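Need tokens for this chain, all 296 residues.
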Amino acid sequence: MPQQHGHLEAGYREPVEARSTRGSGSGGGGIVGGSVQFPQRPHPTDKHPAMRSTTSLFAVLSWAVSVGQNLGEIRGLVLDPEGRTLPSASVYTRIAGELVGTYTDLDGKFVLKPIPPGIHAVTISFTGYTTKEITGVAVTPDRATYLDDVRMSIMNELKAFEKVGYKRKLIDRDDPSRMSLLASEFQDDPTRKDPIQFLSKNFAGVTAAPNGEGLYFRGSRTENTVSFIDGVKVSGAVPRVPPSAISSVSVYTGGLPARYGDVTGGVIVIETKTYGEMYEAERRQALQALTDDERP
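Here are the structure tokens for all 296 residues:
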């Protein structure tokens, strides 16, 4: 593995484990310079052993469950201030409390995977440049999320860290016939408890049957609609899954992937939340409670 010149934010050490991976699909281009897991810096829960042991337990469980889920990935290109590609920049995110990352390759490209569906923050750093954090990066199952080209800037005393918001693209370049919604995007939708009304309201080309018991996908018969929950085919009516347990909902109205068989209607794909996602929500609440308790 070539020598790495990337810079991690203050408090981090060099990666302790690395493996070479080969990018795939459009935009991947070549060998990604090592997929690595970074050591975790001191955490506020270190003062509470019980919470710390719970952290490790949920981290293990989340990765075990993610094996059976449809995961996604994040791809992008990192440039220096002059617009040239930047090799060996550190790119990482946090999953179930653990930092997981990679390096940009010789062309400045990176592939961060596997990433469970949901909203993630991606951090990019390099020696001498301002560390950038891209927040709100939406990852959907079985798809790559493409970031806009990231141009680094020279670090100065007034600006050592920069936070940038991610704007989700309306059309997926890999699959324009697929539409997806994440839990954070429909958590306040009043129809989320009624799958028929929810799907017909939020997805173009999907219409509720007059009797309210089925869906028409661009004119196809209601009985030709197929549903999948965490990759498992569900026969019969549109499944009713508690909204609080859903991580993402995707709908195919045409151009179906081969893995869904000879379906002649639409396909509904529901991914439920992993232990990691549930843990992150509980962790945020716990940290907020600790912060409130420590205030005078």
